[in-house]
TrEMBL record:
One GO biological process term: argininosuccinate metabolic process
Summary of subunit composition and partner proteins: Homotetramer.
Keyword match Ligase: yes
Top EC class, one word: ligase
Residues annotated as domain Arginosuccinate synthase C-terminal: 179-400
UniProt cross-references to NCBIfam families, sorted A to Z: argG (TIGR00032), PRK00509.1 (NF001770)
Pathway: Amino-acid biosynthesis; L-arginine biosynthesis; L-arginine from L-ornithine and carbamoyl phosphate: step 2/3; Nitrogen metabolism; urea cycle; (N(omega)-L-arginino)succinate from L-aspartate and L-citrulline: step 1/1
Gene3D superfamilies xrefs: Argininosuccinate synthetase, chain A, domain 2 (3.90.1260.10), HUPs (3.40.50.620)
An example molecular function term from Gene Ontology annotations: argininosuccinate synthase activity
Domain of life: Eukaryota
Organism of provenance: Paralvinella palmiformis
One cellular component term from this protein's GO annotations in UniProt: cytoplasm
Protein name: Argininosuccinate synthase
Reactions listed under catalytic activity: L-citrulline + L-aspartate + ATP = 2-(N(omega)-L-arginino)succinate + AMP + diphosphate + H(+)
Amino acid sequence: MSKENTVLLAYSGGLDTSCILKWLQEKGYDVVTFTADIGQEEDFDAARVKAEKLGAKQVVIQDLRREFCEEFISVGIQANAIYEDRYLLGTALARPCIARAMVKVAKNEGIRYISHGATGKGNDQIRFELACYALYPEVKIISPWRLPEFYTRFKGRSDLFEYAKENGIPLPITLKAPWSIDANLMHVSYESGILEDPKNKAPDTLYEMTTDPEKAPDKPEKLEIEFRTGIPIRVKNLADGTEKSDALGLYLYLNELGGRHGIGRIDIVENRFLGMKSRGIYETPAGTILREAHLDIENLTMDRELRKIKHQLSVEFSQQVYRGLWYSPECTFIRQCIEKSQEGIDGTVYCKLYKGHVYITGRESPLSLYNQELVSMDVQGEYNPEDAAGFITITALRSKSPSTYLLQERRDNTFPRENGIPTTTKTLQEQGINSNYIKLLSDIYTDNPTTVCLHKDSSIIKIKKAIRQEDTMPPKLSIACTEKIFRTIEWTKKGININ
């Protein structure tokens, strides 16, 4: 097997990557397949046999579940990682894990080419390739779904079926669901097909990992979850005493319990990195439970100002992970910051799972920053209530400043955008502006009916106050002030600004 024309293919055993395997062979490549076990329920022995029958020169299957859990999911938990406030990044966290393992194989085997089956419209091509380039700068990526000779030949699934028949590729025994599925230890995601119309309700048969919350058990599941440095190290079922302390076993157990109680279902529209919006449905039971618990223990043990900064880093981290930047310098830096922030996040959270929800019922920590005596309404302790007066006075300085007051005046007295001079003059009358000023406005602009918007600054507010107080002004000063008002009128229709 010549290493010069050998390609390492990310291989799932499905129709798409099986067709890509044969297509690469057509192009003169020797193909080594790489299959990662990251917690998806697949028959890996069947995938091996299938790849060998299709002529793969070598078949590599690796169990990455533990490192995925300990080195990627755990970081996401510490970070409270969430994209656009809803997506827990199950697929995005898996891609750098798979890419790292593939790069290691490619380097060890002296393979220069890596190929994958990600589509040309999705995020995965970006995540996968950015990780590969970061870890293996000399690598050459073959992405068939971006090559015209491939995507013009295979316009749809029916073309793949025909190609499979012609090349002796075993066809799926069962019909493929009318949507795409990506599963791993952290979640199952569904998109495309009948889900592309965002108003369509997902069929009840879609969900593989969780029970319908309405059909979940009527009795809640009570748990205690222990954290050390922000990482879950133990979970205990308070009903039957079951305990899990192994990272992988703990996560699998929470997936089981959370799935039973309908935890972690979301149906969202998200913004892909490429710029388009897509509809995705996700099931993330263990991730949802652990995020809620981690947020709670973090609030108990983390300083307020540190938490504020850490939250900002978490938002940035989540965007970086979503965009495939796990191995970038900026993401590496933020991961180190997040790890540092978790040094004191030790403690136990008590919660219950019930019909799709995680309810936190209590928490405790040897490093708790909660001072019961200080916060109590019944005990004064070292806190002097009189000190609050000075605190409020100093804090109020900003609110009492003239500029803040003036800004509020401007907001309260903003003229609406209206059509035509008659409406504008009526608005001026309602605002108490001198009738002579209004007449002057009409005289000047009657020949130019258009849409106007009057914006007022501090001098106009002063004029208005003077008018209401019936102050007198010399005629020239009145005209000058009126002109000041006119200079703030925007003639939007003709694009003329009166300055």
